[in-house]
What does this fold into?
Amino acid sequence: MISFWTLFYKELLRFWKVSFQTIAAPVLTALLYLLIFGHVLDEHVRVLGIRYTAFLVPGLVMMQVLQNAFANSSSSLIQSKVTGSIVFVLLPPISYGAFFAAYVLAAAARGLMVGLGVLVVTAWFAPLQIEAPLWILAFALCGGAVMGALGVIAGIWAEKFDQLAAFQNFLIMPLTMLSGVFYSIHSLPEFWQRVSHYNPVFYMIDGFRYGFFGVSDVAPQNSLAVVVASFVAVSSLTLWLLKRGWKLRA
It folds into this structure.
């Protein structure tokens, strides 16, 4: 456990030392989204019977949780590989399970910190109710863990920053932006509603929003089952890659 706690602490310290960039900047980005979209649409749009600005806040919170969890683990690994400092992590007798847990938990921690910051700042602009706090916590933790594990895969696969940027811009960004953050999928044509159900991030956003308002496009139990299944699948692949040492020890 000493190796796990040491690596976990190192990952926490890594993003906390530059918290102005890793925490404050995403909070500001979410606030700008809220100010722009809320100002333009708040008086004209209601979603699921909810004022649009209030509907938007949980989506922005969860979007930042997911994007920053992915960014933390992926950026840490690619920086270590590019600078060569990854050798100081691989040489000690750290099991691949402890390696995985440290990176994923640190990624989830950063995601939750950013999400809490977004919630505190945006709550001034839209009064929120909390119907089911346990659902909020469950989806935030599971969603952050899924993206943290996916970030480990991206960091292992990428050999330079351009490849990691492509992974983020062509996979992570579309999955999060087209997941119902800014709309209910019931406002989409039937074909795109069906397509949205194949996006696991949609279930993370929808279930997280349910915790605030008690309404959602999909039953929260079903959404959580999809998120947990996604975590099991991504984690299994990540652990398999770490066990093989693919692109790390080879």
The longest strand covers residues 46-47.
